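[job 4471] stage=fold_predict status=RUNNING
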Amino acid sequence: MTKCYPVALKLSGKLCVIVGGGKVAERKVQSLLECDAQVRVVSPELTFRLRELANNGDIQYKPDRYEPEDLNDAFLVISATDREDINEAISAECRRRNILVNVVDAPAKANFFVPSTIRRGPLSISVSTNGKSPLMAKLLRADLEALYGPDFGDFLDFLGSIREQVVKTVNNPQRRHEILSALADRETIRLLREGYLEQAKERVNNVYCSCGDQS
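[job 4471] inference complete, writing structure tokens
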């Protein structure tokens, strides 16, 4: 299998189609909604949670079997059915239309894979095995979850605000680069891993406040 090119897609406002209404489809829908995607679900049946989302208007819902027109205007498609013939038909139609398609548990039918991902606020860390072993990806993700706890999300929000101040107030490009390069280091990461969020923030503040003449 050829190597995949890792990207982070912006899905806000994009139509993403999920074919299938089971638990796997539910997880895929939830992750897409978290990225502000417009979601259309095609399935005769839905889980209780998916039906709630449909009743609340959070997703479009077609209570029927898949038809090729269900893919109209789709930016991305995920086939989450247990029917090999339907998965094959969806894959073929998406490839014909040059639509991004993922077929759950059938990497040969997909042109992209969904990595196993942890999210800590603005921080996303993804692990992919190019479809070779989703289980291995999940195990590695579990290790990363232990290393990068919720404090990393809080810290990155704080760091982002400091970075914005530097960009706005420091006019000299070289000085601005020096300050931005010093805002975080391995010691900061160590503090966050050991639960010292406030000390990590203080370390950043000290760098920012000791810049002297920032113009």
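[job 4471] summary: The mean pLDDT is 92.
[job 4471] exit 0
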